């Protein structure tokens, strides 16, 4: 029985859920183009203008920073909101795809079991027809019961292991999604705070250079925090544990079935050879 689809579907989920973090970490910090105007990126070197303070004789920094902070912050918020909406939609689509895939796998498993059951009944009928003595007939009936009992036990164990894995995976997805939402909220709050600080500095007469430097530092800190959170969330030991528990349970069930059928076959052959 092939359980590789579980690995594939989780990988897709993981990439999908973690994708929102990746999108935010590569999002330009302050790169919003306006028609007819160059893009401002506070992480890039700031352009200087020959605007000299008469009292200090020092050149002022980019005067466009304060004049464009309002428009830029609005576009920044719009981009984040659009990304959030996109991720919600993609997560829903992936969840639907996974549910559909699991349904297809379950249907194929049920079909295979039904076919195997039918074939097994035919084999038993043929075997019982070859019995020459009452002792052999009894032995065949005992064999049949032992095989069916072992088979039922294996199926129950496998189904239980698969269900536990899927339930655990769903819980991890929910937890991860909650973590992602919290990280995004933290990131947005940090950006809002940085923008509010920049506006306050500009209103208070802080130089464009200092206001922009403070803003850039705050945004970089927010970005690094988000990146670190992504690294932590991508390394989920609970997923590994889920896989190990599932695989061990299935392996144990298969071995128990093998042992039971081997014994049943040996017992039957001992009677048939008489």
Query: How many β strands by DSSP?
Result: 0
How large is the radius of gyration?
33 Å
Low-confidence stretches: 1-61
Structural class: mainly alpha
Distance between the termini: 37 Å
Number of helices: 5
Q: What order do the SSEs take from the amino end to the carboxyl end, as H and E?
A: HHHHH
Helix content: over 70%
Backbone shape: rod-shaped
The proportion of residues in beta strands is under 5%
Describe the biggest sheet?
Answer: none
Overall pLDDT score: 77
Total domains:
1
Question: What report would you give on this structure?
Answer:
The chain has 274 residues and is mostly helical. The protein has one domain. Helix content is 81%, strand content 0%. Helix 1 runs parallel beside helix 3, helix 1 packs antiparallel against helix 4 and helix 3 packs antiparallel against helix 4. The longest helix has 70 residues. The chain is rod-shaped, with a radius of gyration of 33 Å.
Output the keywords.
disordered N terminus, 274 residues, mainly alpha, 81% helix
Task: Describe the protein's topology.
Elements: H1 4-26, H2 64-129, H3 134-203, H4 208-234, H5 237-272
Helix pairs in contact: 1-2, 1-3, 1-4, 2-3, 3-4, 3-5
Summarize the structure.
With 274 residues, the protein is mainly α. The chain has helices at residues 4-26, 64-129, 134-203, 208-234, 237-272.
């Amino acid at each position: 029985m092939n359980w590789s689809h579980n690995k594939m579907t989780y990988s897709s989920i993981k990439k999908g859920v973690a994708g929102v973090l990746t999108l935010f970490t590569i999002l330009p910090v302050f790169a919003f183009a306006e028609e007819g105007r160059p893009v401002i990126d506070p992480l890039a070197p700031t352009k200087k203008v020959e605007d000299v303070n008469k009292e200090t004789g020092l050149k002022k920094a980019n005067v466009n920073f304060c004049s464009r902070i309002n428009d830029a912050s609005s576009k920044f918020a719009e981009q984040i909101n659009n990304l959030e909406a996109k991720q919600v939609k993609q997560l829903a689509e992936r969840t639907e795809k996974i549910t559909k895939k699991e349904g297809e796998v379950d249907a194929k498993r049920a079909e295979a079991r039904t076919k195997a059951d039918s074939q097994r009944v035919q084999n038993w009928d043929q075997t019982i027809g070859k019995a020459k003595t009452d002792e052999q007939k009894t032995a065949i009936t005992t064999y049949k019961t032992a095989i069916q009992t072992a088979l039922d036990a294996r199926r129950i164990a496998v189904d239980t292991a698969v269900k536990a894995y899927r339930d655990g995976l769903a819980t991890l997805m929910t937890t991860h999604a909650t973590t992602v939402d919290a990280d995004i909220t933290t990131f947005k709050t940090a950006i809002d705070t940085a923008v509010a600080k920049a506006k306050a500095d500009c209103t208070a007469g802080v130089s464009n250079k200092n206001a922009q430097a403070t803003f850039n530092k705050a945004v970089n800190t927010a970005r690094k925090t988000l990146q670190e959170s992504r690294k932590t969330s991508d390394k989920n030991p609970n997923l590994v544990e889920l896989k190990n528990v599932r695989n061990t349970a299935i392996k144990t069930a298969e071995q128990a079935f093998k042992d039971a059928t081997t014994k049943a076959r040996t017992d039957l052959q001992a009677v048939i050879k008489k």
